[in-house]
Amino acid sequence: MATEVDLDRTDFAILRLLMKDAWLSNKEIAAAVGLAPSSCHERIKSLRTRGVLVSAHAEVNLQAIGFPLEAVLFVQLGKLEGQVVDKFLKSTAAIPEVRGVFLVSGRFDLLVHVVVHDMEHLKEIISQHFNRHAVVVRVETSVVFNHEARHVMPLAENKGKSAIS
Amino acid sequence: MATEVDLDRTDFAILRLLMKDAWLSNKEIAAAVGLAPSSCHERIKSLRTRGVLVSAHAEVNLQAIGFPLEAVLFVQLGKLEGQVVDKFLKSTAAIPEVRGVFLVSGRFDLLVHVVVHDMEHLKEIISQHFNRHAVVVRVETSVVFNHEARHVMPLAENKGKSAIS
DNA sequence: CATATATTCGAAATTTATTCGATTGACTGT
DNA sequence: ACAGTCAATCGAATAAATTTCGAATATATG
């Protein structure tokens, strides 16, 4: 598993820009970080092959396509047998309406973020999926009033660990 | 606020592709949905101006840049006065380590997803930010064992509501 | 200080994005 | 059914960006 990589200030600048806006052209990024387009291109290619830059995803306005309601499900699971839980996790993540799954420690075992058309739709997902599996002990549902996703480097400017370490 | 938009099967196909991989070229998308590049380009432009396609963000391997630990904070807030809560939400979202903030109904008021270097770093964020604000009544912390984000259309194939409705 | 390695650059070659007028197809009202 | 209106699609031309690559520069190593 790729855990550590050497990145300099310029790499971080590139990553920071692409996290904010993956639609930036190579030319624009090059200008922003002070490199020639060819050099910048080389670095981006390297970041991808090294597994730092993983992918890019477009964000669509889910309200606009008929999903105005969001919820978080707090799921308690029974005695965790690796196999069964893993299967349930996979099948949960495979539901189109599911936007994220967190397997966590503490009072709950699983947090599931879903988007739905309406309350009926939400009820359907819970009753058809979660209340059907034996591993699920209990589900608590919270409606999401407001949700903000942050696509920024979790690091203050110029705090990139250089290769000097 | 833009809530409803007319989208046909092709629009959904384009959105589905871009959600999965925002690095696809216009040419590739055009081929995949069976349009000429110029037509596809026109549609994508329209999707953006209509506010359906909002943005795109690169996903970086946070392990690789020194953030191997994730946590979810369950926050209870005091009597919700709009102004104060709103300010606290904004300041929370402004923390670089925060990846998402959910204002929810139910047992907790706020869910915060954070990435950190280590436990010390996590403790620091909680004590420096959350335990410093009067609105915060209580914080429960869960370590994230596993986290899967889903970047797919929350809709089964060919289930796009056509303009016929 | 000399050697080896990695980065950077600029220019050429390739590919892609973008514009635009003409054509096709779909919808409206009579 | 039919003419008229509007929107979508296409292909070709132009503009712009990506990608490759050898030479030059900088950086690290012994």
Element layout with pairings:
The structure is a homodimer of 165-residue chains.
Chain A: H1 9-20, H2 26-33, H3 37-49, E1 53-60, E2 69-77, H4 82-93, E3 98-104, E4 110-116, H5 119-128, E5 136-149
Helix pairs in contact in A: 2-3
The structure holds a DNA duplex (30 and 30 nucleotides).
Protein name (chains A, B): Lrp/AsnC family transcriptional regulator
InterPro entries (chains A, B): ArsR-like_HTH, AsnC-type_HTH_dom, Dimeric_a/b-barrel, Tscrpt_reg_AsnC-like, Tscrpt_reg_AsnC/Lrp_C, WH-like_DNA-bd_sf, WH_DNA-bd_sf
Pfam family, one (chains A, B): HTH_AsnC-type
Give a description of the structure.
- The structure is a homodimer of 165-residue chains.
- In chain A, helix 2 packs across helix 3 (37-49).
- Chain A has helices at residues 9-20, 26-33, 37-49, 82-93, 119-128, and strands at residues 53-60, 69-77, 98-104, 110-116, 136-149.
- Mean pLDDT of chain A is 92; it is low at 158-165.
- With 165 residues, chain A is α+β, with helices and mostly antiparallel strands.
- Strand 5 (136-149) of chain A pairs antiparallel with strand 3 of chain B, so a sheet runs across the interface.
- The first copy, chain A, binds a DNA duplex (30 and 30 nucleotides) through residues 25-27, 35-39, 41-43, 45.
